[in-house]
Specification:
heterodimer; A: alpha/beta; nine-stranded mixed beta sheet; two-stranded antiparallel sheet; 13 helices; 35% helix; globular; B: mainly beta; OB fold (Dihydrolipoamide Acetyltransferase, E2P); six-stranded mixed beta sheet; 1 helix; binds zinc ion
């Protein structure tokens, strides 16, 4: 029987173009608030370090470097990688080790430094996560994969681009209220709808940012939880799903098949459904990804996701708040940190500690994080429950 | 006896990781023949081809793919390209679906406006330069 596991502390660096820091300093920024909350190095049994791509910095064996920088050089550590789901994949791996009894207390720390190279080079590296033999030779960038979904979705449901722009407007509305966000400023619907095209039908405001940053959490076995906090967040459900490598081989382009499978597994394990959720963090690497996530998670019927944004039901005071921290679009998307940033945000919201109370969600008991890798090859869904 | 193999690449790639199976595919493409693969054990067909069957992991053999008419399943107009294709932007990437259900991802090269999902596509071939070959779609 697996042991119960809780998130007991979390930390987060400032996201942005962090030319003032490298991966090691970003990790320290994310671990410092955790240390200050009493989880010193001697209390940590082992660490999982999460970063998606070593090409961005060239540092090999990065997990050893970062563990050393944090004073954890003599504790076991390992790196986990699965594209943009690297953060929650690390959390899933660590959960398994704690649930099985191998360790009692683990640090899961995600980081990415992406701005040491130009946007064109970063786009090149990310396009290498497509099939190198059959997709990469045709210049299918990361936004291009999601544009292929958007074209099909907009055609199937006869949906104007403006619906996607409304999602970007919401992201920036909340990013503007988040001191950790990369691009904390409001955008108008007109600005968002008329921005420069990147991969039509997607424009600049449909795309998440190329961001540097780190985020981390401490997880602990039930018997140790009280040492750290009287406000633990239990890991109640974990679902993982996968989809075909080549996007042409997917059974659907208007849904991410692996996300539906991950959501079902997480709901089943947690014994809850979409109606029980008080807040959701979705992987809005592109505006279309947020819309599709509403449907894959069962918050809306297929083709009806637009009603959630048009009726503002996904705002912080709406029926089901989604990404009220700015999401990947405005807060930013440092690949390896993203899933842990979602986890951080849910813990803060449950504790009533949203940074900038103007976006605090009322009485969060159950929260869900939806983290997608590349164009859907990897998906992790976590369901968390307030433990007090 | 070893014969000198012709240096060929698919699309805009300069990937030198060419296996004998992929080299054979490229040599057929050089003669404007697109090859699918068929599993020697269970008969499953793959486009683009695989050396190993996805279902039973048996070896596949190359067979000529003769369908020419496809429907546009989805598209993207790439305005901001990865560095390696920056000089080609904007370009249109399409997923075409053939009547058999097999699909292919390639550029549409003769389109002056934004494409429409469902439109008819024709499979064609091109030599980008002496070494770079491709299949492509025309409208
Ligand atoms: Zn077979």
């Amino acid at each position: 029987m697996a042991r119960k596991v809780a998130v007991v502390a979390a930390g987060h660096s400032k996201f942005g173009k962090r030319y003032d820091a490298t991966m090691r300093e970003l990790c320290a920024e994310a671990y410092k608030p955790i240390y200050d909350a009493g989880v010193t190095q001697d209390k940590i049994d082992a660490t999982v370090l999460s970063y998606a791509a070593s090409q961005f910095t060239g540092q090999g064996a990065g997990s050893a470097l970062m563990a050393d920088y944090l004073g954890l050089q003599n504790k076991p550590h390992l790196r986990v990688e699965s594209a943009c789901t690297t953060g929650t994949a690390s959390l899933r791996a660590a959960w398994g080790m704690v649930a099985a009894g191998l360790y009692d207390v683990m640090l899961v720390l995600g980081v990415e430094q992406m701005n040491r190279v130009s946007s064109a080079v970063a786009t090149e590296y990310m396009s290498m996560a497509g099939d190198m033999r059959w997709e990469y030779p045709y210049g299918i960038s990361f936004p291009a994969f999601y544009a292929l979904m958007a074209s099909r979705y907009m055609h199937k449901y006869d949906m104007p681009h403006e619906v996607l722009s409304r999602i970007s407007v919401k992201s920036h509305h909340y990013g503007a209220q988040n001191p950790k966000a990369h691009l904390p400023r409001e955008v108008t619907l007109e600005e968002a709808n008329n921005a420069v095209p990147i991969c039509r039908p997607l424009n600049l405001y449909d795309c998440s940012l190329i961001t540097d940053g780190a985020a981390g959490v401490i997880i602990a076995a039930e018997k140790r939880v009280k040492e750290f906090t009287d406000q633990p967040m239990w890991i109640k459900g974990i679902g993982a799903g996968a989809s075909a490598m080549m996007i042409q081989d997917r059974e659907s382009l208007t849904s991410i098949p692996g996300a539906k499978r991950a959501a079902k597994a997480a709901y089943d394990m947690a014994g809850v459904g979409p109606k029980d959720l008080d807040m959701v963090q979705v992987h809005d690497c592109f505006s279309i990804a947020e819309l599709i996530a509403y449907e894959d998670l069962g918050l809306a019927e297929p083709g009806k996701g637009r009603e959630l944004i048009e009726n503002k039901e996904v705002y912080h005071d709406g029926r089901i708040p989604v990404n009220c921290d700015g999401g990947l679009k405005s807060k930013g998307h440092p690949l390896g940190a993203t899933g842990l940033s979602m986890t951080y945000e849910i813990l803060k919201q449950m504790r009533g500690e949203a940074e900038n109370q103007s976006r605090q969600i009322d009485d969060v008991k159950i929260g869900l994080a939806h983290n997608v890798g590349q164009s859907g090859q990897f998906v992790n869904v976590f369901i968390f429950e307030r433990g007090w | 006896m070893m014969t000198e193999k012709k240096e060929l690449y698919l699309g805009y790639s300069s990937d030198k990781a060419v296996t004998p199976f992929f080299q054979e595919f490229l040599e057929f493409l050089d003669q404007e023949k697109l090859m699918k693969s068929v599993c020697t054990q269970c008969g499953t067909e793959f486009l683009p081809p695989r050396e190993h069957c996805q279902k039973c992991l048996s070896l596949c053999e190359l067979k000529e793919f003769t369908e020419r008419e496809a429907k546009l399943r989805s598209y993207v107009v790439v305005d901001f390209a990865p560095e390696s294709l920056a000089s080609k932007a904007p370009y249109v990437v399409a997923i075409g679906e053939f009547p058999s259900g097999l699909r292919l991802t390639a550029h549409i090269t003769n389109l002056m406006s934004v494409p429409e999902v469902g439109m008819a596509l024709k499979l064609a071939f091109d030599h980008i330069d002496e070494k770079k070959l491709t299949y492509k779609f025309l409208v």
